[in-house]
Amino acid sequence: MTHSGSADSELRAAARHLGRRRFLTVTGAATALAFGTNLPDTARAAAAAREPRFTREPFTLGVGSGDPLPDSVVLWTRLAPQPFEPDSGMPARPVPVHWELAYDADFRRVAHRGTVVAHPEYHHAVHAEPRGLEAGTDYWFRFRAGRHLSAVGRTRTAPAAGSAPGAVRFALASCQRYDQGYYTAYRHLAAEPDLDAVLHLGDYLYEYAVNAAAGARGYTGEARLPELFHRETVTLEDYRLRYSLYKGDEDLQAAHAAAPWIVTWDDHETENNYADAIPENGVPPEEFLLRRAAAYRAYWENMPLRRPQRPEGPDLALYRRLHYGRLAQIDVLDTRQYRDDQANGDGWKPPTPESEDPARQLLGATQERWLTEGWHASDAVWNVLAQQVVFSRRRSRAESTSPLSMDAWDGYPAARERVLRAADAAGIENLAVLTGDVHVHYGLDIKRDADDPASRTAGVEVVTSSVSSGGDGAERPGNWDRLTGANPHLRLYDGRRGYVVLRLDERRLRADYRVVPHVTRPGAPVTTAASLVSAVGDPGLRPA
User: Fold this and answer.
1) Fewer beta carbons within 10 Å, N or C terminal of the chain?
2) Alpha-carbon distance 3 to 85, whole Å?
3) Of the candidates 498, 492, 419, which has an alpha carbon nearest to the alpha carbon of residue 459?
4) Please, which pLDDT band fits residue 2 given cuts at 50, 70 and 90?
């Protein structure tokens, strides 16, 4: 899986070209439409669509919202009266779906109404984007299709541009493999008071075969489920059905209904440790791009994302920027779609000239430039990176030749140095990196020189554990002594499952690390394992 930098770039370019040609040739015009050609505008499509008559409940996958702006949020649902059928039990025609936003949960004071069309080409997913909303305001929303009303969700718009909100409060979550544990953490997250948003940092879905016999929980519902899920996801139908399985979980639905979500992916939404057009195993890149197109398509259909994030074939522009007044700028990154291949054959390896090649890219040149330009324009107190893999140096043992993770930023040290140099040049004083991926809680000080623990602290990194992936965790995993001893900038390490509540204000960042003692059986209580703070103008995590 390893290639030189120039050969890697040439391979990616050739794969994209071949992949798109093969994509259109193999799939034909009908499937090409499903992967991103233009559909009728909303007004004409709504007029042509007929009201449906459902014999089953169509809102089986819940509701959600996301990507809040001061005057808008995305409202999401997907019509699926039979979620484990390839067509979800829906007719092969457009269906009108009506939405309402209200100032109260009982809908006595309706603020906005509208109608959108759920298209069969998009698996009857709904992405409504109401405009003209009030900034920094809580709304409740619901959908109607035919005579059926959906569950009610709560959302919140972002503060007004240039405003100074007193504080913002986010929940961080990641890594929710279905067959390795219950989503108990989401039930507790949904009960957290006054959340501005949930930031999901990747691995929303896992491509692996769902093994009910070996997993922490079996299937529910129809007896034919094992034949649908006891295989790895490869096709568009595979990915769509896997989202139906995950989104049928009541705890996940509760978390989506509790607050708007800001999402990014990692690898498992497509395939483990893929890098741009290069798959984990020996599949030709042009063939892998067909799979990537299917995965990206299903991701957009099932996430509360806006129209600019709608995929075009095997490409999806996921990186984007959100503002919370002048308090926080959130840059949502994509560290999968544009990266060079992992060096040294991937895994944990000592650094080599290959991994330390100054030309290596993790974000890609265009995304790096976008991030740098955004920082130069930022007037926010906190500049937040919502991303996937561990940013800070992480040695596996206390020696200079210690193995490092080739999949994380440690495998791309030149890319990390360019990001930190850009932060210095832009005068970014309060940098907060938010991370998932590793199924443990970390609190890390980002050292300006990763090889020198005594160098100045350039920011802080808050890593959230998994919701379920890995099964039951442990407060002190087996490598706890070795990892904490090798990394003096590691301020917290807890291996239990859970999530993080992050609060930002004009004085400090506060991270509350929530944990549950078990996920292989339902009903676990939640506790706070630790709380860390970092002061404005004086970065570094300390006990609260």
Assistant:
1) C
2) 41
3) 419
4) very low
Which pair of structure tokens corresponds to residue 230? 């006891």
Q: State the DSSP string of 259-270.
A: S-EEE---STTT
Asked whether the beta carbons of 156 and 139 are under 8 A apart, the reply is yes
Mean pLDDT along residues 172-201? 97
Encode pLDDT of 34-69 as tens digits: 333 344 445 555 555 788 899 999 999 999 999 999
Q: Which amino acid is at 263?
A: V
How does pLDDT run across 464-494, given as a tens digit for each residue?
999 999 999 999 999 999 999 999 999 999 9
Nearest to 260 by CA among 74, 498, 62, 466: 74
User: What is the C-alpha end-to-end distance of the chain, expressed in Å?
Assistant: 44
Distance CA 443, CA 25 (A): 49
> What's the CA gap between 340 and 274, in Å, rounded?
10
Q: Which long-range contacts (CB under 8 A, 24 or more apart) does 512-516 make?
A: 513/441, 513/443, 513/464, 513/465, 514/185, 514/188, 514/189, 515/441, 515/465, 515/473, 515/475, 516/184, 516/185, 516/188
The sign of the torsion formed by the CA atoms of 253, 258, 263, 268 equals: negative
